[in-house]
Sequence to fold (708 residues):
Amino acid sequence: MIDRPHRLEQLIARIGPADERARRAAQQGFDAKTKPRGSLGRLEQIGCRMAAIGGSVPEHLRPAVVVAAADHGVAAEGVSAYPQEVTAQMLANFAAGGAAINVLARQADARLVVVDVGVAVLFEHELVRSVRIGAGTANLTDGPAMTGEQALRALLAGAELAEQLAADGVNAVALGEMGIANTTAASTLAAALLTADPGEVCGRGTGLDDAGVTHKIEVVRRALSRTSVGSHDPVQVLAAFGGFEIAFLAGVALGCAAARVAIVLDGFISSAAALVAAKLAPHTVEAMIAAHLSPEPGHRLILSTLGLEPLLDLRLRLGEGTGAALALPLLASSIALLNEMATFDRANVTDAGR
Amino acid sequence: MIDRPHRLEQLIARIGPADERARRAAQQGFDAKTKPRGSLGRLEQIGCRMAAIGGSVPEHLRPAVVVAAADHGVAAEGVSAYPQEVTAQMLANFAAGGAAINVLARQADARLVVVDVGVAVLFEHELVRSVRIGAGTANLTDGPAMTGEQALRALLAGAELAEQLAADGVNAVALGEMGIANTTAASTLAAALLTADPGEVCGRGTGLDDAGVTHKIEVVRRALSRTSVGSHDPVQVLAAFGGFEIAFLAGVALGCAAARVAIVLDGFISSAAALVAAKLAPHTVEAMIAAHLSPEPGHRLILSTLGLEPLLDLRLRLGEGTGAALALPLLASSIALLNEMATFDRANVTDAGR
Fold:
């Protein structure tokens, strides 16, 4: 077990359960509105969940999207359809505003925060926050992807960003990522933490063919067999299989939960980060909202372990936080309905369900 | 067969196929963007469909929500959990801005058009457009819900509204409705047009219990058996089982298709209206986008007959166009991605999928 610094223990200690009183008050709010009880379905659940996370119904959704980018030594095993250079190229694309997540964050009126947590090639830009833990992780099939100290540093840096966003009034943070080969890191991490077979968690990533998936499964199996890491210490598993961006996003999740800010999961990789956070502090799950279902088979497994049901199923397989950004208008709408709809009493509508 | 006036024949004649060249051009647009091919899943389909409907990729989504309200004589059979007076009360609520659809239309930046197509009690308000065909339909178990002339009048009035919206620059119209007992009208209509058993199409509406559903099935069966109306003349079936608001929305769908404006279906009732439009002019389907899946069993049946896959499944059962309004941001995002994302070439990102 890796020694946890005092700051991490303090952070974990601050993460408490959701506010059930606020959730009930929000449900009573929905029940008084001019509509049949429960007829807004999952929008009611989401509005109530936002209230339970924050302690009351917020006036507005104030969302941010955090896109964490990093490189992965395991890319050398040929597990991605894309070459490693694409991570840095996409970082430049985020900075220039041309990627899908730039467009979708604008559409959702969300603040976009791009973080370099360890891309192989240095790319400096005023719009990219630099929290570089290293120039990409080591190859997880040869040894640990990162040191325990690096894992802890990335976790705490993520938590710090979350606390800053919370201090700025942000009440929902969408988790996005970019990193060539990071579905392999996430698959290994998920297999280890869920004690699942690599075949159950590995998928096509951004576009592998059948042979590519078979190879990826073999790589994950090799990584798991080289180490005796169990699932007992999440920080050790995180360090073993890594992803600087995954460690950072796990920290963002912890920081959000501590600050009572909603965590909006994107696809498989951000959910693997959420799983690490949940293993460290189980109440973190109560602050999570699953935005969409990825076609990666490991995603469904993680979400069912966390007890989360995704809002969207649009067959997205891009990452970057795109699925999470697309769900933000649903969150905003659930809050607006609670704040703006008329009640049966005020609108003089007969309430047959009373 | 009911004689069709020249205006209806002209309208139907104007409804042509989708623009496959525009669809292919939009797909090529998506393929050049900085993301793996197809990785935006259904958002790419929707963007391409919007292009195929309008003939090119629009600059922006310019949406409207049409909420058509009317009363139903079949309410006398006790098929709804709510009394008939609620239709007029909700019309007042729409006018005052307090209903769910008011909130969701605002959230989607959509123009809201509320239409009284025949509510039992007259409610006049500057924000309610009056196209009253009658003070509610007749009880469909006793005889035709409306005359053929009324059905045609409602259809043409709906088409006229669609053409006005198109002239104002609207390029997507969400179909919403309000009318106590209208799931019974829609169920009868769907059973007749799909030659389905009433048990396959009837659901809980806004909140019936098991006994209520059984009773509703019996009412629909009685209505179907009193008449020899086949499924050969959609206008005659429409008149027999009606819904002034359903006839009006079928007309809105026809008018949208003729004006090359996207038709965004809401739940079961708006989809029954869409089915009538599709029976009159099959190419209308190519202008439709299914926003959400209703728990009403008849809805899945209609959508599969039309070959449409819903974008959302949020267990909504409210109507008013709420599910359609919630899907509008997805349409807006698909268009924004096509217009605003960088291409591989421009962003200097390596395109492994080329």
